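Figure 3 (text version): structure tokens given as input.
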């Protein structure tokens, strides 16, 4: 599959042959869903917790005698039905992550890349570099390319000036090729890859 390559200024920079095994697959929502769910579950902290009846700092003595008062039978004041008591079945600190086979994760990334290519939401730029590191310059370049909601993937090292300029632009994410992931690809409207990123991805999936 051949794809058009442009410069950051929006000028034509030739064509690049990309692998159909990575960018030409038929998207599968079930695989993409599994990978996104795995990513978000792994990201979840799981540090939320409430106190149960055994953790409440109140007396455990019987509130009043069992019979003769005309009131309901009660024991400890720590039980959930009383204000200040423990919470029943509340959240506890735990790990939300679950396993997902490496082959499924790799397939999910290929399918996400293919989905962007099939939807005409994939742009390849010869080099993600900005000499002056000015946000204003980058905004003008993005306007020429029609980018307002995009994920930009550079090579192994992202140009410092480009990264600094992009930090102040809303709905724009910049990652090195090692950080590419399914969730970030799908959450942005357009995927922008540098030529170095395409080469690294093809080498990764050989």
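Below: residues designed for each position.
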């Amino acid at each position: 599959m051949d794809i058009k390559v442009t410069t950051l200024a929006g000028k034509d920079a030739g064509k690049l042959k990309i692998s159909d095994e990575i960018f030409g697959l038929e998207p599968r929502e079930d695989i993409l869903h599994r990978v996104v769910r795995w990513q978000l579950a792994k990201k979840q902290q799981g540090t939320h917790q409430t106190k149960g009846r055994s953790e409440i700092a109140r007396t455990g003595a019987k509130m009043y005698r069992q019979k003769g008062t005309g009131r309901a039978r009660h024991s400890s004041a720590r039980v959930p039905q009383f204000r200040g008591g423990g919470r029943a079945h509340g959240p506890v600190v735990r790990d939300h992550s679950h396993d997902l086979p490496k082959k499924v994760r790799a397939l999910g990334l290929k399918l996400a890349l293919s989905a962007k290519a099939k939807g005409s939401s994939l742009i390849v730029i010869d080099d993600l570099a900005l000499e002056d590191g000015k946000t204003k310059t980058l905004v003008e370049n993005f306007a020429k390319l029609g980018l307002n909601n995009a994920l930009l993937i550079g090579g192994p090292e992202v140009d410092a000036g480009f990264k600094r300029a992009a930090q102040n632009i809303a709905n724009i994410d910049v990652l090195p090729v090692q950080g590419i992931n399914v969730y970030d690809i799908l959450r942005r409207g357009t995927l922008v890859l540098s030529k170095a990123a395409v080469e690294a991805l093809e080498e990764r999936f050989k």
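The chain has two domains: 2-45+98-204, 50-90.
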